[in-house]
C-alpha cells in the first residue's frame, strides 16, 4: 500500500511537469518502475496504460483553456501512433539502449539552443504552415522513441516544434500533450500484443493514473497563464538536464562530476529565466509574441 501511495505521488509530480512543460511523465515514471524491479518493457507498458487516462484529462484541460492547435494534433497524432506501436513490439523483443546516448546528445543540444533562443528573444522568420511533410516524420520518430524508452514523445516532439518557432510554447505543449493519447493507446496495444496482459503491473499503472488525473488540470492552467519566454527557458532547461543525465550515466561519469554538471545546468536555467524576464520587461507585454506566432502556427 505504501508503494502505491508513493507511485500516486510520483504520478502527480510527473504529470504536473509533463502537462506544464510538455514532457517528463514517461521518463520519470518508467525510471521509478524499473528501480522497483520491473523490466524495461513491463515498466514502459505500465506507464503507457496509465497515460491513457492522464492524456485524456490533460488534453481536455488544455482544450478548455485554448492551449491546443487541433490541425497540428491531426497531423502528428496518427504517425505518432504508428511509431509507438512499432516501438512497443520492438521493445517487447529486444533492447534499443545503444541508441540512447546519440539521442541524448541531440536532445541536449536542442535544449541548449532553446534556452539561448528564448533568453535572447530570437524569433525564426518562418511564415509557412506546419505541414505533414514536417509533422509526420517527427510524429513517427517521436512515437517510436516514446515506446522503446518508456517516454520520449514530449522530449522529442516538444523541442522540435519549439526550435521550429511557428507555434507559441503554450500551443506546442498543449498540442503535444493532447496528441499523446493516440501514442499511448497505440503503444499499449503493441505491448499487449508483445507481452500479454500478464506482463503489465496493473496496480502500478492505476496508482500512477490516479496521481496524474489530479495534476492534469493544474498543469494546463499553468501553461495558460505562464509567459511564453519563461516556458521556453524552463522547457530547454529540463531537456538539457534530463539528457545530460542520460549521457553521464551512459559513460559512467563519477558521481561528483555528475552533480557539478547538474548544478551548472540548474544555474544556467535560473540565470536564463532571470535574463529573459528582464529582456521581456524592456520589450513590453508578453502576449505580443504569442499573438505573432499564432498567426503563422498552421
UniProtKB/TrEMBL annotation:
This is Probable membrane transporter protein. Belongs to the 4-toluene sulfonate uptake permease (TSUP) (TC 2.A.102) family. It comes from the Bacteria. It is a multi-pass membrane protein. Keywords: Cell membrane, Membrane, Transmembrane, Transmembrane helix. It is found in: Cell membrane; Membrane. InterPro entries: TM_pro_TauE-like, TSUP/Inactive_protease-like. The chain crosses the membrane at residues 29-51, 72-92, 98-120, 230-247, 259-277. Pfam families: TauE.
Amino acid at each position: 500500500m505504501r508503494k502505491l501511495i508513493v507511485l500516486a505521488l510520483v504520478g502527480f509530480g510527473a504529470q504536473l511537469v509533463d502537462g506544464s512543460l510538455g514532457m517528463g511523465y514517461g521518463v520519470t515514471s518508467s525510471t521509478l518502475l524499473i528501480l522497483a524491479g520491473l523490466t524495461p518493457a513491463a515498466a514502459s507498458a505500465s506507464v503507457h496504460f496509465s497515460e491513457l487516462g492522464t492524456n485524456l484529462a490533460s488534453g481536455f484541460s488544455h482544450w478548455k483553456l485554448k492551449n491546443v492547435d487541433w490541425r497540428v494534433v491531426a497531423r502528428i497524432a496518427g504517425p505518432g501512433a504508428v511509431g509507438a506501436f512499432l516501438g512497443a513490439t520492438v521493445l517487447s523483443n529486444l533492447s534499443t539502449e545503444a541508441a540512447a546516448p546519440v539521442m541524448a546528445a541531440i536532445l541536449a543540444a536542442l535544449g541548449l539552443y532553446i534556452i539561448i533562443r528564448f533568453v535572447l528573444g530570437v524569433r525564426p522568420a518562418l511564415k509557412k504552415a506546419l505541414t505533414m511533410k514536417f509533422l509526420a516524420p517527427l510524429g513517427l520518430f517521436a512515437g517510436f522513441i516514446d515506446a522503446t524508452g518508456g517516454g520520449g514523445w514530449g522530449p522529442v516532439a516538444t523541442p522540435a516544434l519549439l526550435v521550429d518557432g511557428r507555434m507559441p510554447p503554450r500551443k506546442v505543449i498543449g498540442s503535444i500533450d493532447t496528441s499523446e493519447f493516440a501514442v499511448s493507446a497505440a503503444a499499449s496495444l503493441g505491448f499487449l500484443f508483445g507481452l500479454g496482459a500478464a506482463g503489465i503491473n496493473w496496480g502500478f499503472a492505476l496508482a500512477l493514473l490516479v496521481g496524474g488525473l489530479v495534476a492534469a488540470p493544474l498543469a494546463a492552467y499553468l501553461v495558460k497563464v505562464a509567459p511564453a519566454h519563461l516556458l521556453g527557458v524552463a522547457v530547454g532547461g529540463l531537456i538539457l538536464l534530463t539528457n545530460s543525465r542520460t549521457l553521464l550515466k551512459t559513460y559512467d561519469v563519477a558521481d561528483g562530476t555528475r552533480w557539478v554538471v547538474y548544478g551548472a545546468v540548474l544555474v544556467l536555467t535560473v540565470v536564463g529565466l532571470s535574463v529573459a524576464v528582464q529582456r521581456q520587461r524592456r520589450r513590453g507585454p508578453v502576449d505580443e509574441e504569442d499573438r505573432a506566432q499564432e498567426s503563422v502556427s498552421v
